[in-house]
From TrEMBL:
Entry's localization field: Membrane
Record-linked InterPro entries: Cit_transptr-like_dom, Citrate_transporter
Record region (Disordered): 230-262
Keywords, comma-separated and alphabetical: Membrane, Transmembrane, Transmembrane helix, Transport
Record's bilayer topology term: Multi-pass membrane protein
Keyword presence, rRNA-binding: no
Protein name: Citrate transporter
Highest rank taxon of the organism: Bacteria
Lineage: Bacteria, Bacillati, Actinomycetota, Actinomycetes, Kitasatosporales
GO molecular function: citrate transmembrane transporter activity
Length: 483
């Protein structure tokens, strides 16, 4: 009974958010609360929710201060050179833009943290997608899938969990998987190319007058700084005329870092702009901010301190050094308060879903039902079976639940047929490309929130491509004899 209700609860959640009948936050709270009552455990709902909140509170704290930290870094212009490099590479070609999205997400993913990756990727590329009128779900889908493949790094989480659960060395799990994961990354770039070709076909021929800022007259007879002088695609509009720019504030020339990000437009259709004149630029502190960020990411990879503590200290330092006056600090926190509230709210809403799913025993019953359904003939191929099961299970479960609850069961089943635990561990990494778009992953709400994409739209678009990427990784692992 719990098995059936568990699958029905997950299906109801996905259907309602993809059909946009409920907001993700409301669905994450109300649907599990209803099913908790249906299974006869309504009296324990409070305990389950508090347990879920307790488990996710460190993640919410990390996201809160990470958003503030990277928000400040964007304000002061730290990532402007990245934007300039991307503009030079991408120009106005949708294919290059989408491939550049995959490349940037993959590179930033080396820090092992999905939230960081999504904040940097969206911050750098959102203006370009908006200016060229490209589909934002393409950006979120490609970024999430690229990050999912890279999430298998030993310091990213899944590999460490698999090693801990099966008492193995993380290097022994990850290093042999590199060829298969490399093929998966190539698949992501191939996907980016195909999606870019689609966008190019949809938009028509775009032109880019300049990779620097231009001034464009808007309908309200006001002027605003726009990212690029791109045309309107296939509609036949003429490209905006490029005009000289004055360079970043405080730099005196175009040779300094490119302009940083200005405030968000008032509505979803507005253009987030690069403003070289905004007061928050700190060109004289550029190298301090670069060193601080590099140190923060290094400590994050080395796991010197818990990630929430690192971002808390980092945010405090960034605010204090860049904005020494109390009034300016309050203004910067207020500027990013909307993102902080949206993301942290989604994390705590997800705590209700995970708390009920785990507390009622639905997850355990669902997993054991799936494992018990494996035919004995597949016993000698448990590594492959684990890879296949990891795709749906890591989507519907947290990584902790999968690696500490399910993987040991699969390892026991494999051991009975002579399959080494190391093969089970490697197979368990296959589903990470899809896992990063799971509604139970807090980082995905950073991605869709900053990109202003509905979670249901992101899910409908991304799931099929991410699942396909996971299957490519699995096939490569089998072909190379890794799994």
């Amino acid at each position: 009974m719990l098995t059936i209700l568990g699958f029905v609860m997950i299906a109801a959640f996905l259907v309602l958010i993809m059909m946009k009948k409920m907001s993700p936050m409301a669905a994450l709270v109300l649907i599990p609360a209803l099913f908790c009552v249906l299974v006869g455990q309504g009296a324990h709902l409070g305990d389950y929710v508090l347990k879920g909140i307790g488990d996710l509170a460190p993640t919410a704290a990390m996201l809160m201060f990470a958003i503030i930290y990277f928000g400040v870094m964007i304000d002061v212009g730290l990532f402007d050179p990245i934007v300039r490099g991307i503009l030079k590479f991408c120009k106005a070609d949708p294919v290059r833009v989408v491939v550049g999205t995959a490349l940037l997400a993959a590179i930033v993913s080396l820090d092992g943290d999905g939230s960081t990756t999504f904040m940097i990727t969206v911050s750098a590329l959102y203006p370009l997608y908006k200016r060229l009128k490209m589909s934002l779900v393409v950006m979120t889908g490609v970024a999430a899938t690229a990050n999912g493949v890279m999430n298998t790094l030993p310091w990213g989480g899944p590999t460490a969990r698999a090693a801990t659960a099966l008492k193995l060395d993380a290097g022994d799990i990850f290093v042999p998987m590199i060829p298969a994961l490399a093929v998966g990354l190539v698949a992501v770039f191939a996907l980016a190319y195909v999606l870019g070709r689609r966008e190019r076909k949809r938009l028509g021929v775009l032109t880019l007058g300049d990779t620097t800022l231009v001034t464009e007259t808007v309908p309200e007879n006001e002027t605003e700084q726009v990212l690029v002088g791109a045309g309107t695609g296939g509609t036949g509009g003429a490209p905006a005329e490029a005009r000289p720019t004055t360079g970043g504030a405080g730099t005196g020339s175009d040779d300094g870092p490119a302009a940083g990000f200005g405030e968000q437009a008032a509505d979803d259709d507005g253009l987030q702009v690069l403003d070289p004149q905004r007061a928050t630029l700190r060109p004289k502190l550029y190298w301090f901010n670069a060193a601080l960020t590099l140190a923060l990411l290094t400590l994050l990879i080395l796991q010197t301190l818990p990630i929430p503590v690192l971002f808390l200290i980092g945010a405090a330092l960034a605010l204090t050094v860049n904005f020494p006056h109390m009034k300016d600090q309050k203004a910067r926190v207020a500027a990013h308060a909307e993102n902080v509230l949206n993301v942290s709210g989604m994390v705590f809403a997800a705590a209700v879903f995970t708390g009920v799913l785990t507390g009622t025993g639905m997850v355990e019953h669902m997993a054991r039902w799936l494992v018990s359904g494996i035919p004995d003939a597949l016993g000698p191929h448990m590594g492959i079976v684990t890879g296949v099961l990891s795709i749906p299970l890591t989507y519907f479960m947290s990584n902790d639940g999968f690696y500490f609850g399910i993987v040991p069961i699969l390892a026991e089943a494999g051991a009975a047929h002579g399959v080494a635990p190391i093969e089970i561990a490697r197979g368990s990494l296959v589903g990470q490309a899809l896992h990063m778009s799971s509604p139970l992953v807090p980082a995905v709400y950073v991605l869709v929130g900053m990109a202003k994409v509905e979670f249901g739209d992101h899910t409908k678009f991304t799931v099929k491509w991410a699942a396909l990427t996971s299957l490519v990784v699995l096939c490569a692992g089998v072909l190379f004899g890794i799994i």
